[in-house]
Amino acid sequence: MNNERKKHPHLQIINPSDTPPDSDYEVNQSAQVVVRKTQEVKPAEIAKLRWSIYISIMKPITWVPVVWSFLCGAVGTGGLRLDLEILLKLLVGLILSGPLLCGMGQAINDYFDREVDAVNEPSRAIPSLRITLMETYRIIGCLGFLGLLSAYYLGTVVFFLSLAGIGLAHAYSAPPLRLKRFTWLGPLTSAVSYIAFPWLAAASIFGEISPRVLIIISIYSLGATGIMISNDFKSIVGDYALKLPSVPVVYGTRIAARITCALIDSAQLAVIAYLILADHHFLAAAVVLLLMLPQLFYQKSFLEKPLAKAIWYNSHSQIFFVTGMLVVSVLTF
């Protein structure tokens, strides 16, 4: 073995006894020598792996708030009932809002944010070279086509809202506009896309877009802007490096945390005031107020250590914010 090391110093000699006999070696993208398991990988396993990568670039976790907003809009009209056509439209609308258009928006963002992700999250599909740019481009095209086809089935208003959503997704991430490089326009654009558009789409399908609906979604979009700002904390290192002026970069983490909490809290207080003064829905106002209490508890920790607690705060506090949205829809239609 020593002679082999002298003849081939660049090779690493692995002693089989050093590792368990049944273990596999993980493939490391940056490694010069890759040790693979000897058994042949089945085509079905390869296809499954590719599909998991495709789905990962669509970020299923981000579909939840968009699908939730669509559901709030549908419930808030009072037009849902046990009817085959109604239920089919609800299903198509949920798929349109989440996997298709939100998934497409996430793929667009990853496509144009690959340099930022290489700093912030190098393990993502594009920076880690697990998916090519051409594959990403095809995913965007397929999702957009299926999205517009579904939107056409749901009606003219939904079709044009979907077109506007696709336009905003490109404008947010892609040059020359790249709205995310504007400190306030970026999070506001995201909030409108996540809250207002799906809510409006659902209202147009199952009821009507009334002035009351416009007021409610405008207020909640303001609160969602604060949530989008809190999401920027996790990418602050890459934003600094590439000079993207997000709110945490421009104002610093402590002031940005205060802005986040102020927007979220003021939006909910505005909803409570509207429910009491205009709608006279005291029960809904009381429930939204109760749902604010745990948020204030989480905000205390977030304000003390904004950079360390941003992700923790989002994962624990947002559920109460979005539950308030559904409560308003259920109790006031």
In words, what does this structure look like?
The chain is mainly α and about 325 residues long. It contains 14 helices and no strands. Helix 4 runs antiparallel to helix 6 and helix 6 (about 135-155) packs antiparallel against helix 7. The longest helix has 29 residues, at about 85-110. Mean pLDDT is about 85; it is low at about 1-40.
As a percent range, the share of helical residues equals over 70%
Distance between the termini: 79 Å
Briefly note the structural class of the backbone.
mainly alpha
What overall geometry do the principal axes of the alpha carbons give?
Answer: globular
Could you tell me the mean pLDDT? 86
Instruction: Assess the beta-strand content as a share of residues.
Output: under 5%
Radius of gyration: 24 Å
Helices and strands, in order, run as HHHHHHHHHHHHHH
Biggest β-sheet strands, sense, barrel: none
How many helices? The count is 14
Number of separate strands: 0
Low-confidence region ranges: 1-39
Give short descriptive properties of this protein.
333 residues, mainly alpha, 14 helices, 73% helix
SSE arrangement:
Layout: H1 2-7, H2 43-58, H3 63-77, H4 84-112, H5 114-120, H6 133-154, H7 156-173, H8 185-206, H9 211-231, H10 236-241, H11 247-251, H12 253-279, H13 282-304, H14 306-332
Helix pairs in contact: 3-4, 3-8, 3-14, 4-6, 4-7, 4-8, 6-7, 7-8, 8-9, 9-12, 9-14, 12-13, 12-14, 13-14
